[in-house]
Amino acid sequence: MARRSTPSSTGSPTGPRNRTPQPVRLRRRTFGDFVKAFLAFVALLALVVGVPGALAVEVGWPLPSEAPSLDWLQQEMTVTTFLHILTVVVWLAWAQFTACVLVEVKAAVSGVGVPGRVPGSGPSQLLARQLVAALLLVGATAASFTPGLSQLGHGIEGNQKATVAAAQATPGLFAQQQEQAASTAAALAEQASHAQADADSGTVRAGATKFYRIQPPEGRHHDSLWEVAQRHLGDGRRYKEIYQLNKDRVQPDGSRLSEASLIRPGWIMEMPGDARGGDLVEMPDAGAAVSPEVQQQIHDYAKSGDQAKSGDHAQGGGAGAAQVSLPAQRPAGDAAQQHGQTSATDSADSGDQAFGLPEALLGAPLLAAGLLGALGRRRRQALWQSAIGAVGGRRGMEPPTPTGDALDVQDALLVGADPEGVRLLDRSLRGLSAALADESRALPTVYAAWLSNGDLHLQLAQPAGKPPAPWQLGQDQTFWVLTRADAARYDDLDTAAPYPGLVSLGTMDDSRLLLNLEAVPGIVSLSGREADRAAVFASVAAELATNGWSDRMTITLVGFGEDLTPLAPNRLRHLDGIEALVEAMEAETRQRRGALGAAGHDSVLTGRTGPAQHTRWAPHLVLLAAQPSVEDAVKLAELAADASRLGIGYLVGTEDGRLPGAAWEMEISGDGTLRAPLLGLELAAQMLPVAQQRAVVELFVQADPEHGPDGPTTTPPFLVDISEQGRPAVYARLVGSYEIIGLDAPEDERSALLHEALALLLLHREGVHPRVLSSALWPRGVTDDVRDALVERLRAWLGTDPDGSPRLTADTSGRLTLARSVVSDLDVLRSLYHEATQGKGVDSRVVRGRLLTDALVLVRGPLLADRAEGRYRWLTHEIVDAQLPLLVADIGLALSEFHLEKGRAEQAIEALNAAVRTASDDERLWHELLRATHATGDTDRLTALAADLVGRSGARGLPPRTEALLDELLPTWRDGVAAAG
C-alpha cells in the first residue's frame, strides 16, 4: 500500500509541517561514559556491599542478643550505646538506599519506565537512579530500558525529567485517565512484529507499512503521541508527523483523531516509514502475531488512509471535528467572545487601532472583568473611608481622573471585560459543588476548564461517574459539560468556591483554556524569553488576585511582581528569593498535611464540599519567575510531589526549558504563542506586558484610600455656573426619573439608545472612548458602522450652540466629549455643594443655607430611577451609584447642622428625612436624626424613631455605635421598643 501523503508533504499550508523522516540516531558511547559507568559501579559496590561489610566488621551486631529488661532502660548512656544507636540508623539508611537501587534496576531491566517512589526516599532514590543510569548507559540496549535513561547521567543537559517529582508527570490535558501516582511507564507491547522499510523508494510497500495500537493505561499513564514518537522515532517532537498521518481517519470505535492530544486506548496509528521498536506492527498477514480481530481492524484502518487521501481527508475532516466534543468551535464564554474579542477584532479590522487601546486587555475578558471589579471595590472603599472621616478631615469623594496610559488601560478594561461570563462561571462551579454535596459525592479533580461557544467544559483527572444535572458527560468520561443556557439557571449559592485555582492561559482553536494550577501533579514550567515569560506571569498573577470565581487564596510571587501587590494586598505576597520560598513552603506543606490528617480529609477538595467548607482549604499558588538551581529545583519537586492533594500549585520559569521535576512543560515564543508539546497545546497566550502592568497598578494606587495627596478630592470634575446667567442649553435630570429639557424627543425606536449614550457622556465629562461607548450600549458586540451611525445621530440630536460649535465633539485621542452647555442635575448638585462648603457659602451663612437647600431640592430619588431592565448595565462598573448617596447625605448633614445652629430642630429633621430617602443606609444620617429628635424634647417621638431603626435593622440588629448613642440619649429605649413591638 502506498504511504498516504500528509498536508505538508503535498504543499498544503494547513496543519503542522512534517519533518523528513530520519534514521534513529544511536548515541555512541564515549570514554567519559565508561569512566562514569566505572565510578558508578564503584559507588554502588561501596554503598550496597561495602557499608554493611564495614559495619559488620567494625561494630558488629548493634542490637542486644536478648530482650532487654527494665533495668537496661535505666543504665547510663555510654559511648558504646551511642555508637550502637548510630549504627542502627546507618543500617536503616543502607536498607532504604538498597531498596531504591533494587527498584531502579528492576524498572530499567524490565522496561516499565520511571518507577514509583520508595516511601521517604527523597534524595536517596534520586542518587540511586543516577548511579544505575550511569552504569547501564554503556550497555548495548540501555537507551531502550527507560524513556530518556541515557540522559540521566548527564545532569540537566539531556532535557530529562530526573527528579523525584518526575513520576508525577502527566502526558496530556486531554488524556482519558490520568494516574497521579508515581509511574510514567513506556507502553507495554500488545503485539510483536518485524518491520522492513523500503529505503530506496519514496513510498512504503503494503506489506511493510507500520502501525501502532494505543495501549490502555493499566498501571501507568495514558499513552500519548509524544511518548509514541519518543520511543519509535527517537524524538517526541515528531508527534506531529503521526498526527498528520492519522488525522480525521475513522478509528475502530467509530471516532476520529482531531487533536494531537486526544487519543484513546485501542486506536490504531499509522507510523512514519523510519519508525523502529518492538511494539510496532507491520501490515498483518496470516502469520502475524496478533489476533484475527486486530488484523481486521488494521486492514480496515489501512484502507481508510487511501479514502482519506482522496475523499474525506481532502475535505478537511469536518465530521471528525464534530465527533470530538472538546472545543473545536467558537470561543470562550460566549459573552467573553462577543463582548470583548469580537468587538475588539471588528474594530481592529476596520482600522480602529488609531484609538490605541491595549489589545492584550481587550482579548482577556476574564482578566479584564476581575481587574475592573477589584478597581471598583477599591474606589468604593475609598469613598466609604472618606465618608466616615480621615485624619486631617475629609478627603473628598472624587477619585483622580486617569490620564495617559492609565486612561487607555481603564478604557480597555471597560471594553474587554466580561462580568457576565465571570458570573456564569462562578455560579456554575459553585452549583456543581452544591449538587455533589447534596449527593454526598466528593469533588472530582479538575485539571482544566475550557470556555467554548458559551459552554463550559471541565476536564477531570480521571472518570468520576455521571455528573449531576444539568451537567452532562462530554466526549468521554473525563469531560463534564454545562451549556450556557443551563448555566444561566443557577442562582447565587452560599457554598465555597470549588476550583479557585483556575486561571486563563490563552485561546486555542477559538476556545479559552483555564488551567487549574493547584491540581497539577507537580511543577508547571514556563520557558522563553524573559520579557515574554514576565508578561505571562503578570497575567496569571493579576487574574488569580482579582478573579470572581474564588473566595480566598494566597499567591506568592518570587523573582517578579513586587509592584503588583497593590492589586490585592490581602492575596499577593512577594518574597525576595528562592531560599525564603523553600523555607516558607516546607512549613506550609507540613501544616497542610497535618491539617488534612486531623480533619480526616484525603485532599483539600474534600474539605470544600459538604458541611465543612473550611476556609483553610483555600489554595496557595506559587509563581516563581526566576529559574531555580538544580538543588532548589529538586527541593521544589519534592514539595510539589504531593502539592495537588494539598491545594498548592507551582508555576516556575526557566531560561532553557530544562527544569528538573517539571510535570508539565510550556514555552512562550516571541510571537505570543504558548506551546506545550507533551500536552498537545498551542495557544495564543494571554499576556500582560510591562507597560500595561504599570498602568493597571497606577489605577489601583490612585484608588487606594491610603494614597497621599493625590487621593480623592473635594473638587468635582465638572463645575457649572449656578448663577441665573449660567442657564444651560440642554439640561438632563438623572437624579430620580430621567428627563431631558431643551431637546426635541428623538425617534421612538432609537430613543432608548440615545438617552443611554447621553447619560454615559454626562457621567464622564472627561470624555468617552468610542469603543467604550459601543461596549456599554451593546455588551454582546456591534460593528463599527452601527456604532458610528449612532454617534452621528447623537451629534445631530444634540445640535449646536449659538456660535455654531457642535455640542458633541471628539478630542485628539478620539474620545467623545460634551460641550459645557450640556449639563445634568448631578453636575448642578455637585457644584451647589462645593460652592456652599468651599466657595461663597464659607463666608456667608445665608448663602450657605440657600445653596444647601437648593441642592437638596434637586434630589428626587436614586440615580436613573426608572432605568429599563436590561439597560444601563455599565453602571455596575461605575462608582456614581455609591457617590450619589454619600453626596446627598453630606448635603443633608450640612443643612441639618445649619438649622441646629439656630435651634431649628424641626427644619433639621425635615432636611435629614429628605436625605434619608436617597441615602437610607448612611448611619451618619440616623445618628443626626436621633440627635435632632432628642433636641425637640419629645420622648415618645424619639422612642418611635428608635423602634423604626430597630425594624429597619432586621436580624442583624442595630450597629454598635447606634446602640451606644441610644443608650446616651434614651436609656429606656429597649423597653420602649419592646412595648411598641
Automatic annotation (TrEMBL):
Disordered: annotated segments: 1-23, 303-352
Bacterial transcriptional activator domain sequence ranges: 824-970
Keyword Calcium attached: no
Compositionally skewed regions (Low complexity) per UniProt: 1-17
TM helices/strands, residue ranges: 80-105, 126-145
Stretches with biased composition (Polar residues): 338-350
Transmembrane helix found in the keyword field: yes
SUPFAM superfamilies hit by this protein: TPR-like
Protein name per UniProt: Bacterial transcriptional activator domain-containing protein
Source species taxonomy: Bacteria, Bacillati, Actinomycetota, Actinomycetes, Kitasatosporales
